[in-house]
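Holo model, guanosine-5',3'-tetraphosphate. Inputs:
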Amino acid sequence: MDQYTEEIQRRRTFAIISHPDAGKTTLTEKFLLYGGAINLAGSVKGKATARHAVSDWMEIEKQRGISVTSSVLQFEYGGCCVNILDTPGHQDFSEDTYRTLMAADSAVMVIDASKGVEAQTRKLFKVCVMRRIPIFTFINKMDRDARDTFELLDDIEKELGIATCPMNWPIGSGKGFKGVYDRDRQMVVAYSDTEKGTREGTATEVSAQDHGALRELVGEEAADKLLEEIELLDGASAEFDLEQVRAGELSPVFFGSALTNFGVEIFLKHFLEMASAPLPRKADKGLVDPVENKFSAFVFKIQANMNKAHRDRIAFMRICSGRFDAGEEVRHVQGEKVMRLSQPQQIMADDRKILTEAYAGDIIGVFDPGVFSIGDTLCSPGEKFRYEGIPTFAPEHFARVRQVDTMKRKQFVKGATQIAQEGAIQIFQELNAGMEEIIVGVVGVLQFDVFKYRMENEYNVEIRLENLPYEHIRWIENQDQVDVGRLTGTSDMKKVKDMKGNPLLLFVNSWSIGMTLERNKDLVLAEFGRS
Ligand code: G4P
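Output:
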């Protein structure tokens, strides 16, 4: 293999998904620690510092003490070049969180062992399924009292509809947590509570076949329970099958404790072995192979105002094929222009490193003078093709937007349109009306504040938001075949249109969606909008 091919083959690009507080930040920090990307001091500062460090870009973030933006972290481990796409969590859950998944080749799902599958995990998981990317599960916080292991796996299978294959098996939990049984090697690895922030220690191991040693290591009761569970497990759980894992049909499950460094490195090692290198991606000219083709990338995120002094925008792009060389020109397909990308950089927490080259699998941020849109393709000047568009994800909160000063019509329209273009919010209009009154839809409520703040600070337009009761939005898949004006839905249903004029339906609850489909047999609704 030549060096160029090797560089691409050794890339692993993944996103970490979880419900807030499951331990995503802690796990990421531990990964970075093993990869040597951050020093010990950085990791023990705790999440408050880590979160603040990510960004001070917007006042609102400072006020709330959370980060609205997400970053990309790169580190080396075991010969792999690993790219972690951090997804914003907590209340700042946004469409960006979904879009980040469009740029990842696989996902790591972190689940709190005492809670099981939670709301945000479920939502993000849906996007992974839509993309059919492999999903690796890390069940965290085993040092705390956990739910029954079989129940946890059952929960994942039922709630998410994916088969699971435990790669290791926990022995007890909380105070009684003794370690894990490695199914492949049939060894029991004893739990040792290494100090916060230090590397995983060398664990004591015994063979599960050696019952005497096993009893001595974990105690009689735990040993008997384990042997019983192993028997049950070998009979009941899905067999490990790498093909199925890579097709996103089977999730390998690992147990551990990110905080105390138990099981993290083993997980990372196995995960990097199982996860695939950058895969071919769909474009209008067919599949684009990462190695065979020259440079190509697509924009999956646009971040405004990263540097307040310059009011700049950064377009984040995922390189899908070839090598990016900062000195060379590229074609921006949608903009119909050949250009040199300005200030290509890698965004690492609060640090930005100027890049000279990057490979398929990597994420780069470039200065955007306002020419890029989400989903745009970039390729080498001699080529011209487009990657499959990024879907529009369903907002869950809606508000009517009113201008306080109606004289500022122009700025109002400009601000709302530009912010929507960046993908932070979606805007809709009444089916038969213009921009005089708009409805804004967001995935996470914090985006309402961001929108209001930016309209006031960047566009000098004061707005009022009046919350609307809708929680569901559906695109009409077969809009050419239905007369939207004559659709009969439920009394709470609202007909709107997006910026491109596509009709959509708003509903207060999921029951109304069912009723509407019932009443209009020909209607086909979709949860994702095609761009
Ligand atoms: P998130 O990014 O998914 O939101 O979760 P984060 O890593 O911030 O972890 C949430 C809380 O859970 C943190 O505690 C963290 O220390 C704790 N935690 C993470 N992994 C484990 C684990 O394996 N075992 C135990 N017992 N706790 C874990 P916090 O009190 O909210 O924050 P901090 O003050 O400890 O930083």
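Confidence is low (pLDDT under 50) at residues 38-70. The radius of gyration is 25 Å.
Archived with the compound record.
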